[in-house]
Amino acid sequence: MIDKNSYDKILEYIELGKVEGRLLTGGGKAEGNGYYIQPTVFADVDGRARIMQEEIFVPVLAIAKAKDWQQAINMYNDTEFGLTGSFFSNDEVRIAAALEMMHCGICMLTANVQEL
Length: 116
Prior knowledge:
Elements: H1 4-20, E1 22-25, E2 40-43, H2 50-53, E3 60-62, H3 69-77, E4 84-88, H4 92-101, E5 106-110
Parallel strand pairs: 2-3, 4-5
Antiparallel strand pairs: 1-2
């Protein structure tokens, strides 16, 4: 982080994330001389949770479940900022629809995704 203020604020978001979701990895300070934070991933986060709704600008990722790809896009669009977004699919029709439907500054689309 650029300074102690930003560092402390992000650590507060991470603590909030531990309440709003399930911590998968990271979640704390990283080693080094500076304001470093571990890459952090939360799962099972509600679409209306603060860590889903607010732009954090750090290595923090919140994952929410959707019943289908259209609901996932609607959840994505139901944020205030929407600066960046990603859509992963092997279906070209869905990829084209996501490109049209997602309201974001930068949209990363990925095809040829192997099933997890």
